[in-house]
Specification:
With 409 residues, the chain is of the alpha/beta class. The protein has helices at residues 11-22, 45-49, 64-67, 128-141, 153-165, 185-199, 246-249, 290-306, 369-378, 386-391, 397-402; strands at 4-7, 29-32, 71-73, 78-82, 87-90, 95-97, 100-103, 107-109, 122-123, 145-149, 168-172, 202-204, 209-215, 218-224, 229-231, 235-237, 241-243, 255-256, 262-264, 267-269, 274-277, 284-285, 318-320, 328-332, 337-343, 346-353, 356-363. The strands form 7 sheets. Strands 3-2-1-7-20-19 form a 6-stranded mixed β-sheet, with helices on one face. The protein has a 5-stranded parallel β-sheet with strand order 9-16-10-11-12. Helix 1 packs parallel to helix 8 (290-306).
């Protein structure tokens, strides 16, 4: 008999457990979480906040634990992993002995002033617990407008979801453009102008929230670094996240793994805490995306069951498409020779090094992104054809090019 324990019940842990069960693993599985929910998708939870049914967040089913014969240990965070004794300990004093551990504890919001959270109306935007609290607050206090501090992926996601719900939103960001981690200078400024024009979100750049003003314990206003004051009863803080790696490693720098997703004897790791090599460059880092997490979980499950399987590496792909009609896709490094094509609201750029794609940004019509992604991964030399690929007026032109039938009769 082999007992498997997961720390975390997120996408990676759910995929890991599902793969074990579907591949015939019948021994005991215990899943530990600091939340009180079935596994849910962080990619979907903004839809719930925007007004969609609550149960849509449970992308593997609300009855996951029963269906996959799992013992859930919920609302009790794991605070320590004793790798030598193969025991995990929780905040409530519970212990779980394991034979194999799948450590996928995810990440948490980082706050410049954690004490702000003691004020009613100030929230993070990372977990389903956050979404439920925000939803309840908006309904109970009839909130009509809000401020998001942070213009990265999560902050933009938050502003779009709440704007879709009907709130008048202001987005405050310290950089000179939104989405500064997933775009270059020009691409980010193009996206910023387009977002402001199409959504009506008030975007304040080169600015931060420097203070909050409370009235009777409830948020009343925020002070900005430009010395202005904004009245608001809702503030979302989304300026960064930290991996929940302390229980295993004693710090929040993540958990390095090998190609089998092993962090140590009997301990697998995946998702937002896993430090893995990049599939193209080999550079190690935390590449916290859904496709990476899924493949890491599958690699770990297969290795546990069959003793072999290697992770091919992560790719830092970013996709923003919720609640906007101009999706943004990017990947890789924005260094090298830039090749750009723009037509109206469509903007495409690749960076070339030795005639191979080093990175890319696509805004607007992103149907070409799958082909560009494959060219990027395959390291195919495209220096002589990339301008034609990017500028193809028909969205199916890259398929025609691939099949060699792009010549007009």
């Amino acid at each position: 008999m082999m007992k498997v324990v997961t720390v975390g019940t997120g996408m990676a842990a759910a995929e890991f457990v599902q793969r074990l069960r579907l591949d015939g693993f019948s021994d005991e599985i215990v899943m530990c979480s600091d939340e009180d929910f079935a596994p849910y998708s962080p990619c979907v939870i903004p839809f719930y906040l925007a007004g969609e049914p609550f149960d849509t967040v449970f992308w593997k089913g609300k009855d996951f634990y029963r269906h996959y014969r799992v013992t859930p240990r919920l609302s009790d965070p794991v605070v320590e992993v004793d790798a030598e004794k193969r025991i995990v300990r929780t905040a409530a004093g519970r212990t779980e002995v394991y034979d194999r551990l799948f450590y996928a504890a995810g990440a948490r919001s980082w706050y410049p002033c954690p004490e702000w959270l003691e004020t009613q109306g100030v929230f993070g935007f990372k977990t389903l617990t956050d979404m439920v609290a925000i939803d309840k607050y908006i309904k109970e206090h009839n909130i009509k407008k809000g401020v998001v501090f942070g213009g990265g992926f999560i902050g933009v996601d938050a502003a779009l979801a709440l704007r879709h719900r009907g709130l008048d939103m202001t987005l405050v960001h310290r950089n000179n453009r939104i989405l500064s981690q997933m775009t270059d200078e020009e691409g980010g400024q193009f996206a910023t102008r387009k977002l402001a024009r199409k959504t009506g979100i008030d975007i304040r750049l080169k600015c931060t929230v420097s203070e909050i003003v409370a009235d009777g314990g409830q948020l009343a206003a925020v002070g900005l670094s430009d010395n202005s004051m904004m009245e608001t009863r809702l503030l979302i803080v989304a300026i960064g996240v930290s991996p929940n790696s302390e229980p295993l490693r004693g710090h929040d720098k993540g958990v390095p793994v090998d190609r089998q997703m092993l962090a140590g004897a009997g301990i697998y790791t995946a998702g937002d805490v896993a430090v893995t090599p990049h599939a193209v460059t080999g550079a190690t880092g935390i590449y916290a995306t859904y496709p990476n997490a899924m493949q890491q979980a599958r690699t770990a499950a297969r290795h546990l069951l069959h003793g072999h399987c290697q992770y091919a590496g992560s790719v830092n792909t970013n996709v923003l498409k919720k609640h906007i009609d101009f999706p943004i896709v990017s990947a890789g490094s924005f260094t090298g020779e830039a090749v750009t094509w723009q037509q109206g609201d469509i903007w495409r750029r690749v960076y070339l090094e030795d005639d191979m794609i080093n990175g890319y940004i696509i805004i607007g019509d992103t149907r070409i992104s799958g082909y560009i992604y494959q060219l990027y991964l395959s390291r195919k030399k495209v220096g002589s054809t990339i301008k034609k690929i990017l500028s193809a007026p028909r969205h199916d032109a890259y398929y025609r090019h691939m099949l060699g039938c792009d010549q007009e009769p």
